[in-house]
Amino acid sequence: MTKIMLPASIVQVVFWGTIGYTLLKKVLKPESPDFNVGNMYADAPAVEEKSTNDPADGKKGAISVFTMLLCIFLFVASGFEPFKSHFTIGVIGMLGAVIVLGTKCIPVKKAYEELPWDVLITIGGIGGLGAGLDKSGGGALIANAVLNLFGGKNASVVVLTIVIAVLTSVLTNFMSNNATAAMISPIAIAMALGLGISPVPWVIVIAACSNLAIATSYGTAVNMQILPAGYKFSDFVKIGGPLLIILIAVVTVSSVTFLF
């Protein structure tokens, strides 16, 4: 995995330090008077500083910091037993919300007012779409059709590696990375065994490419969380799209060079 992702990481750093920054300014136009249109953070009223030091504020701050550290710990620990059986990302997030709301660190009314409901609805809808593609077999049908289009088991290893990388990278921008990897891996493994080669390289390619959800606003929860800042779907495509193409090429070349 390191042999694939290290070159990809270096390319990302170079990209953002060179053409990426220029592309960012060209797409977002920060000098435009409309730059902050739709940005809920820019439109938010300024918070007046309090002239007195309220002891309650210090207590709330301590509780907030404790809650943040607790959630970080549980996020990490949730990958291991016994935490894995009891704590999911959703449960941990709800636990943190209950603590800060229950201790009145954040007023419940204010929390509801500042929730980006459009983002929450988008997350729910896209999550349902991704789950539907996964459970119905629609995603696997698409994957099989694309692979067979390029020769299936009769195609060369290099061609199939490119197809698997592109297919995984595209699907993960519309589905969760876990669902994408779980859907394409069995297909790739079966094809590898049919060709008489180890399926490990293709599984590594799938693992790497399923984390390249950078070209859509709903490819991953991180992208959706910044939508209240006023970003449009086209912004992600214009900025993340070129980088996605570059990273697919890097992952493919690295995997063919080092894994086969």
UniProtKB/TrEMBL annotation:
Its main location: membrane. GO terms for biological process: transmembrane transport. The keyword Iron does not apply. It comes from the Bacteria. GO terms for cellular component: plasma membrane. The chain crosses the membrane at residues 6-24, 61-80, 86-103, 115-133, 145-167, 236-259. This is Sodium-dependent dicarboxylate transporter SdcS. It is a multi-pass membrane protein. It is found in: Membrane. The keyword Signal does not apply. Residues 5-207 form the Citrate transporter-like domain. Keywords: Membrane, Repeat, Transmembrane, Transmembrane helix, Transport. InterPro entries: Cit_transptr-like_dom, DASS-Related_Transporters. PANTHER family: BASIC AMINO ACID ANTIPORTER YFCC-RELATED (PTHR43652:SF2). The lineage of its organism: Bacteria, Bacillati, Bacillota, Clostridia, Lachnospirales.
